[in-house]
Amino acid sequence: MSIYDKYETVIGLEVHAQLSTKSKAYASDSTEFGVLPNTNISPITLGHPGTLPKSNKRVIEYAVRLGLACKCNIREVNEYARKNYFYADLPKGYQITQDKTPICTGGFITIKQNDGSEKEINITRIHMEEDAGKSIHDIDPFDTLIDLNRAGVALVEIVSEPEMRSGEEAYKYLTEIRKLVRYLDICDGNMEEGSLRCDANVSVRLKGSKEFGRRNEVKNMNSIRNVQRAIEFEAKRQIEAIENGEEISQDTRGFDAVTGETYILRSKEMANDYRYFPEPDLQPVVVTESYISKVKSTLPPLPNELFKKYQTLGLSAYDAGVLTDSKEIALYFEAIIAKTKNTKSAANWLTVQIKSYLNDNAIHISDFKITPIRIAELVDFIDTGKVSHTMAIQKIFPKMMTELDKTPSQIAEENNWIQESDSGALNEFVKQAILKYPEKVLEYKNGKTSLLGLFMGEVMKLSKGKADPKMTTELVKEMLEK
Ligand code: ADP
Ligand code: MG
């Protein structure tokens, strides 16, 4: 047993999601991304004396959406607090956040284990707060530049219980959160651009131990994969330190994506005392039961519910996963199966043919021209037996892209693609094919059954691709084995 096997990793994540509201959390400045630095900055954002914040209703709505989707308790009376610290990109000298009264508590995120089982990761709290500005260190060689466009942009922070046990579980948890905020349309979920950020709290303990070890908090990971890498490195580092008789000090660490290592940023002895106190400039926001039900009625179908639905419709976990990965794909699928009963075939068309078309052309499902109704028609048309699956893939589907106003059956008829399943005509083709290769017939009879393909190919050629493959196989075999 290696030293690493003696230990268990314990992980709790703090996830910040930047909300996609049009204006900031406590000011009406635009949140538009990519505009000139320091243009979306009103006196409120800059914290000028005499200005007063006001809370953005959308932020409450988005936080409630998230809370409902995670099955949290939603708080009725929401107070704001000031978290005081001095930093150049924080012009007010404090951040407006929630301290003792987070809007959501309880609730959970469900992750799927590799064996197919589910694990619920409990959520401690979700609270609303505002972002700071950006300090830019790499444009000017001497000075730090400050862009305050981001200052005051709305965030929710989602804090998990320390219930994850591996980097992989953290990866799955974050993937679920990203999927969820995208389904809910409250955040674009982009970790590379920083609209979703994650601090990972990591500790290790001997397996079987009930007490938690001392944790380190790792920051600066710009992808979900890097969160996993950082956790795995950190766990290993801590185990090695303990095995060397060292004590783990509770620090804040950064992650270097190039080396895959974490490094110390600051030690907790220097931990800030934020001196939280109730924000005197904002009234508490009251979230009523009727407001909550109103928000609930606008929730989209959620990925987990759709996943379960697709499994009860007989799809594999893999297919259900692919179909629910993104909301746009799921909604497209929903629209197909509203029109056809052949769920399995519909899933195949979407996860194989359509997806590879999207990949090959580097386009998004929203730019895919064929409507879900047409795909449903195609699925049903194939089921009539009038065209083979191969014919549908190779000929009809490509034609559907350009002839959007025609049904698959119209296209098949116009191009004379309706397949020969009338056994009289087929019989004739099969006979011709067999007569063409007398020596091959002997070889086949002597056991070289792989020659079946040759005869099949010949029949396909003779029928111009319209022979029903299943029937042809049967007929060819029958005649060869006579
Ligand atoms: P802080 O505000 O100092 O970061 P919190 O109590 O808010 O502290 O905890 C932050 C996160 O740390 C939570 O996600 C929690 O689950 C996690 N956590 C707490 N203790 C441990 C531990 N021993 N090992 C790993 N994670 C932990
Ligand atoms: Mg923390």
Walk me through what this model shows.
- The protein has 482 residues and is an alpha+beta fold.
- The chain folds into 3 domains: 3-290, no CATH class; 301-414, no CATH class; 423-480, Arc Repressor Mutant, subunit A (Orthogonal Bundle), CATH 1.10.10.410.
- The chain is 38% helix and 18% strand.
- The chain has 15 helices and 17 strands.
- It has helices at residues 57-69, 167-183, 224-243, 289-297, 303-312, 317-324, 327-337, 343-360, 372-383, 389-402, 408-414, 423-436, 438-445, 452-462, 469-480, and strands at 7-18, 73-74, 77-78, 81-84, 94-97, 104-105, 108-112, 118-130, 134-136, 145-147, 154-160, 196-206, 216-219, 251-256, 261-267, 277-278, 285-286.
- The strands form 4 sheets. Strands 1, 2, 6, 7, 8, 11, 12, 13, 14 and 15 form a 10-stranded mixed beta sheet that branches.
- Helix 12 (423-436) packs across helix 15.
- The protein is elongated, with a radius of gyration of 30 Å.
- The protein starts with 6 loop residues before the first strand and ends with a helix.
- The model has no long low-confidence stretch (mean pLDDT 94).
- The structure holds adenosine-5'-diphosphate and magnesium ion.
- Adenosine-5'-diphosphate binds at residues 10-14, 159-162, 201-203, 212-213, 215.
The backbone outline, from C-alpha atoms, is elongated
Which segments are poorly predicted (pLDDT under 50) over 5 or more consecutive residues? Answer: none
Number of helices: 15
User: Whole-number radius of gyration?
Assistant: 30 Å
| Integer tally of domains | 3
| Attached small molecules | adenosine-5'-diphosphate, magnesium ion
Tally of extended strands? 17
Question: What percent of residues adopt helix (DSSP H or I)?
Answer: 25-40%
